[in-house]
Amino acid sequence: MKRDIKKSFFIFGIIFIVTLAVVLAASDVENEVLNKDECKKQCSEIYTSQIKECNNNYKNDRNQCNEDKKIGLDACKNLSRAERRGCIRSVLNQTKQCRGDARNTKNGCKGTAREEKFSCFNSCEGIGRDEDGDGFVDLEDNCPSNFNPEQEDSDIDGIGDVCDTVTCCHEFGCHESNAEECKNMGGVVQECIRPSTGNETPTPEANITYNQTNVIGNLSEWVRNLTQAANATGIPSQNYTATTYDCDDFADDMEKNLTALGYNATYTYYWCVGPPAFGHAVTDVHAPDGTIIFIEPQTGQVVNLDFDGDGTIETRTNEHVNNLNAVTDDNCAIEVYDSAAAAAGAGAPRD
Question: What is the tally of structural domains in the chain?
Answer without folding.
Answer: 2
